Amino acid sequence: MNHHTISGRILTPQGWVQGRLHHNDRISHIEADPTAAGDQLILPGFIDLHVHGAGGTDIMEGGDAASRVARLHARHGTTTLLGTTMTAPPADIEHALRGLGAVIANQAPDSAQILGVHLEGPFLNCQRLGAQPPPVSTGTLEQVQRWNAIAPIKVLTLAPEIPGHLTLIAQLSAMGIRVQAGHSAGSYEDGVAAIEAGLAGFTHLFNGMSGFSHRSPGMVGAALAHGEFAEIIPDLQHVKPGALRAAMRAIPRLYAVTDATAATSMPDGEYMLGSQRVMKCMGCVRLVLGDSLAGSALTMDQALRNLVDLGLSLEDASARVSRYPAEYLGLQDRGQLAAGLRTDLVVLDTQLQVRRVVIGGHAINLAQGATQDAPVYA
């Protein structure tokens, strides 16, 4: 296999190194050389654990939809993602899972690697649906096992206060599934009980869950007081900067997700999110019928820039889009740049714009699959 070299400022677990990164499908070594040419920034590839769509395509369409979604997100530096489902009748969820399973088994070389599924619904609380459709149900181990046999479920969102779900959390945790609280009307006490049962994280923190107040801390309070991990959408619409900063101080490994929809990298207009009609207008995605936010049009490179604009160091922001999500899933082969790890990386210019993306040692074509609003950097 051919060996390749990339020069510039390399973000390693020990800090920045001016030098050269040597690789094939794995990183062979990082060579420090202060005289190495280039001020480009070489970061670990982004890992997005909550993706519904992009480029006019929604994961729930099934077929090769997931492949098209992964191809577009790769152009924005995402090298690993989870295809995320919506609440729907079982037959519709299974249709989406069959499509995901086929794509996972036969990954396209110019796309982000789809590791598995984030099952968001249908085990939710009807009081906190947000943009989720109404056919919710109580989860059972047998149902999850059937769906997991179609496509590997890595993350599962549920409302822990629903009777029977505490037992389910323990059962799913034993299967290696990371269970998250989301679309939940549960109390602080419900959240603490769920953590004790094996709850691992929280889905789009602050959104779709009982909020925090000093007399009623809610599910948000349980996350802030006890959570080690949680996902958050840093598009600066779902969560305002002050709340983002508070969460980053409280939750040690708070990580970014996009919750991206079919509207991502598309012009303003109407799109589908599962069975829901949504409207993208001025970068914001909302339900057509109602005013609820409905996922986002965010990409991970923009998430990184937003975090830096909030005042985070590039090292800290990078951890929240790469290392922490890798650690959350227990992935030891990615999320950082070090010898022996997968060559999943993104090269940025000094304005933090994407110049190059390498996935499993393969440099992707950034122009291929670009859409109207998607900037291309050759």
From TrEMBL:
Judging by the UniProt lineage, the source's domain of life is: Bacteria
**Residues binding substrate, per UniProt:** A131, N207, G208, R215, H238, L293, A294, G295
According to the entry, every stretch annotated as the Amidohydrolase-related domain falls at: 42-362
This entry's Gene Ontology molecular function terms read:
metal ion binding; N-acetylglucosamine-6-phosphate deacetylase activity
Gene3D superfamilies noted in UniProt: Metal-dependent hydrolases, Urease, subunit C, domain 1
Which co-factors does it depend on? a divalent metal cation
Binding positions for Zn(2+) per the UniProt entry: E120, H183, H204
Alphabetically list the UniProt keywords.
Carbohydrate metabolism, Hydrolase, Metal-binding
UniProt-annotated catalytic positions: D259
A single Gene Ontology biological process assigned to it is:
N-acetylglucosamine catabolic process
Cofactor: how bound: Binds 1 divalent metal cation per subunit.
Query: Does Coiled coil show up as a keyword for this record?
Result: no
Enzyme Commission no = 3.5.1.25
Homology family: Belongs to the metallo-dependent hydrolases superfamily. NagA family.
Q: What is this protein called?
A: N-acetylglucosamine-6-phosphate deacetylase
What taxonomic classification does the UniProt entry list for its organism? Bacteria, Pseudomonadati, Pseudomonadota, Betaproteobacteria, Burkholderiales
